Amino acid sequence: MTILIDPPRFEAHGRRWSHLVSDSDLAELHAFARACGIPARGFEGDHYDVPEERYAAVVAAGARATDARELLRALVASGLRMQKRRGDRGVARRCGVHLADGVVVDVDLIVADREADAARVFAALVFVHDSSDDLAVVHSVWRNEWGAPGGGREAGETVRENAVREVHEETGLVLQGEALRPLGYERFQGVAGTGPWDSGRDLLQLYGASVEGRRPPLTTTHDDTSDRRWVTRTELEQLCGHTFWWPLAEAVLSPRGG
Fold first, then answer.
1. What's the 3-state SS for 74-106?
2. pTM score, two decimals?
3. CA–CA dist 184, 110 (Å, integer)
4. In which domain, by residue range, is 12 found?
5. Is 37 found in the same domain as 129?
6. Which one of 82, 150, 193, 194 has the minimum C-beta count within 10 Å?
7. Among 57, 78, 99, residue at a domain's last position
8. What residues have CB less than 8 Å from 133, skipping those under 6 apart?
9. Domain ends where: 50, 78, 106?
């Protein structure tokens, strides 16, 4: 196992940056970054961004200096590279996630303020805030866990229509599609069992939205959820902090994520 770093040539935010990767193991990469004092917010899904002034210290700590081309080759060969658009930010990769009915998936969690390719979206979720910034959550029968309202996309629906319909069915709240804010997306790759995704329709779109008033009543017209409630940000973490998707929620609900 080797940690690699390229020269600080990428310019952003008025500084130059290097990329730090592992050639085989994300856990190794995270451990090395922590030991070097590189903050978790520097992780981009498959690498850490390292500011120019930290380059020499990171090399001294054991990272092997290489050029950008070799670093990219090593990342691709490792299978750890996270495909994403320029400007999107990878948050985490969760491998071997066990869902219901024996379904196992690998999931990439990506922050993005642009909507994902609609042709690839099979479902949508919405973080719905009230006037006091509390959030509406529902308990999924299939997953047997709490989360944001949302679900699968029906034939003929736009992604925003999918999101608005699912929120109304699961909470009774009425949203305006044009007011939805893209926050990010999840990319699913099936490992075992069958889920509502495939290789060409593998993205779950995440939006944010707001409703007027403090904790308006929540109702439902469907039986795919067994409960619903308003929660504070702290209560949301208590309910959902163990889930595979929590790193994405944490990113988009923080000041940095908007």
1. HHHHHCCCCCCCCCCEEEEEEEEEECHHHCEEE
2. 0.85
3. 5
4. 3-78
5. no
6. 194
7. 78
8. 233
9. 78
